[in-house]
Amino acid sequence: MSEKNIFERELTAEYREEFARMLAVEPKPVPKRMGSILLFRLSGRRFALPTTVLVAVTEPLHIAPIPHRTGTALLGLVAFEGEVLPCCALRPLLDLQGGAEASAKTLILQETKGRNWAVPVDEVDGMRAATEVQLAPESAGSSSAGHYIDEDGTVVDLLDAEALFKLMRLAVA
Amino acid sequence: MSDDFGDLSLFDLFKMEAEDNLRVLQDHLLAVERGEATPAMLEELMRSAHSMKGAARIVGLDLVVSLTHAMEDRFVKAQAGKTIAHEEIGNLLKATDWLAGLSGLEESGVDGWVEANQNAIHVLVAQLVPVDGDAVVESAVADVEMPEGESDRQASDQIRQAEEEKVPSAEALRVETEHESENAFLDAGAMGDGGHRQQPVRLSAGGFDRILALASEALVLSNQTSAMPETLDRNWRTLVRITGEIRALDAAGVDKDGDTHEQAVIRAGLRADWDRRFADFEHIIMDLDRAARESQLVTSRLHTEILGGRLRPFSEGTAGFVRLVRDLAENMGKSVSLQIEGAGTTVDREVLDKLKAPLTHLLQNAVDHALETPELRRELNKAEHSTLLLSANHEHGQLVITLRDDGKGINREELRTRIVDRELASATMVSMLSDAELLEFIFLPGFSTRTEVSEVSGRGFGLNVVQAMVHEAGGSVSVKSEAGVGTTFRLTLPVTRSMVRTVRVRAGSDTFAVPLVRIEAICVGTPQEREGSRHLMVEEAGNTYPVVSLSSLLGQESTLRAGHASPMLLVGKAGGVAFQVDKVLDQVDLAIRKVDPRIGKIPGVSSVALDENGWPLLLLDMEALMQTALGTTPMSESVQEVVRGLGHPMAHILVVDDSATVREQVRRILVKAGYRVSTAQNGREAWNLLRTRSYDLLLSDVDMPQMNGIELVTKVRADAVLERMHIVLLSYKDRPEDKQRGLDAGADYYLTKGSFQNETFLQAIVDLIGKGEPQ
User: Fold this and answer.
1) What is the model's pTM?
2) Fold adopted by A35-172
């Protein structure tokens, strides 16, 4: 019965106030674990992609242009490990300004098994184990899945890989 | 390596095939006996028995055909739910033992084996044949729950399907010719694709050993060279250190002559170290040079060995032809025999597959059209018996197949009359055509000199389909004919479709490869303007060719100028085009592969390959480029002029849409752009039109009643006659997945209906069939 007495005892005003104060405090946001991401730069902006879609980061690959397709997001065909892949420019897909200067690296991204894409980028910053993520407001058709805040405090656009692949498919067909 | 297969007799091949099938029969029968049967297992048993039956039929082992047929029949019944009783399993195993005994014999012992065992096998066959109304023992296949009639029907459908796929009877070959879906030339070559890629490749034990030995050699070489970068790096770092130390000595103001003893020792030590490392470098370079040469040699031999695995004797593709000719001739009251020469000539197995349909067409045409009845031949003082000679041989690295008949030849007067009757040209113009130009008409779509349709020919799509199929296999076809003496068709094809010999050219800023088989000649020509011609013209080897800039066809700026000499590729003989290029680079053998389907149709490009640097290189589709350049199918200039004059081949487009408004809108746009347009309200109506009339392009909506656009495209691509038709899908649906679905079905373009408003729509049409001719 002593337990009953404890739970049913009259609460003091201080206790109620203390409890109210505790409840009034907004809890810290729970970090959303995103796994690892690859950070890269394009047209002066920073982007990230989940490493689950990353096959390799290579030196720039020779691009064989495709007749009648110049000026589109499809830059041409590249060869990577004996396979011929479509090479797609991200700038027009992400509405980025800036010319097509020589890219420093090429990302090989895997949409599904046996369906890879080559994507030239300006610079690769490396990979991070991302935990702190602020989701951006949902916007239909956006290729952004949210933002990642890097160690130096800069905000990086976390790209939605699936949406990106859709954009690329549409752009090259 | 290829000789290994060339040396194999059909009986050897039967034995090789029997090995796998016997293993399946033995293992699965024992599993059935153990009560572990599954529908898949019964299916495999049925297929194995069926395969052995087909193989036995080819080698003429009728006794084995009846035995395997009885086995197959029993398995079909089992699939329908009639469980195989224990004693029946014993009989089936006994049958398997007979087959195993046969497959262990040399060919010389087969007759003796048949004679010794035929009575016992007949008894066994009688025991295997299930009697109707047999009591069904408890079902060993618990999960087979199909109505009796349905399952029987399915089983017989499977058999029929298997018959059509496997048994090269005359009837089957005829059916195949008309309905077989000829996969696009490169489909089977695509990495990871289905079709031929799923077929096992047989290698002789010797061939396999050689490949293994070469692979081991390559591994050893690879191991040797893998250590070299580290050694080079170590030497390099040492040299850098020594150089630094020498510079430090020099910087300290100590020159060689003023060295103290200690410094002299240091300098001498550095020099000795330098010399040693330098010598190491020389050795490593020599080792690298040797390894590179050996590696090249080993890789080349390995490639040749593996390539040999794809090569089969020509005779494998001709099985059933003799029977086909015999049956057709008998039906038509003719006396004809087919002789095959060069049966051992090696051909890529996929080229061989592709050849079956065009050769069947040619044989049917020969028996039906070309060869006379014995009575007529007697009147003409010819031997009553007609002979068809099919021969295969290698010439200059190409496979050349000829089919020669000793029939009446192509009657030029009949041909001229037919051309005039069909309003393809006026009588005056026809009388001016050269013999070679006249013969080109027999390859025009829908052209036939026959006035009536027979069972096997006269439908008007024979020779143009033959030509198209041979082109798709990477080859070309020509004809020679002498009235009263006979006709010879000559097919020139690559020996293997894995490797294509190409000429690399520079067009604009890019490099492309052109299949050598497509090029008649390479020259430097000076194009000139000619009155009445919309093209610049060049004369070469007695022929006049319209000149077209390759770079402009490929979407780049043209460097073609009248009066300026340029390198040119002459493609096609009298009816060809001179493609002006910026530079002819070299000749190279390339391993080709399909262009990624995500990219869709690339006008003028057939495939892609990797060059010696491992860079992608596009192979050009010269037929398509000729069509785009001329706005019509390749024909000689005079024939084109004739046809253009009559306005006949104005590109004809079939527009399919269930909306009358859209149909009319599209029709107006296309007519204005200079195309001839017909319309259909749905896929079914379009399908009926496509099979009865000739169109250059199909433009279809996706969502339609009765048969939708995707179904229509799929049907067209699966049809042997229509499969190469240009197709554009037009839809309001613009989601990527909708677009992908259309392209996956086989459309060349998938456009949204909004594209009417911009030039995308007409550009797609122009890319595929060339510009229209606005009135």
Assistant:
1) 0.50
2) OB fold (Dihydrolipoamide Acetyltransferase, E2P) (2.40.50)
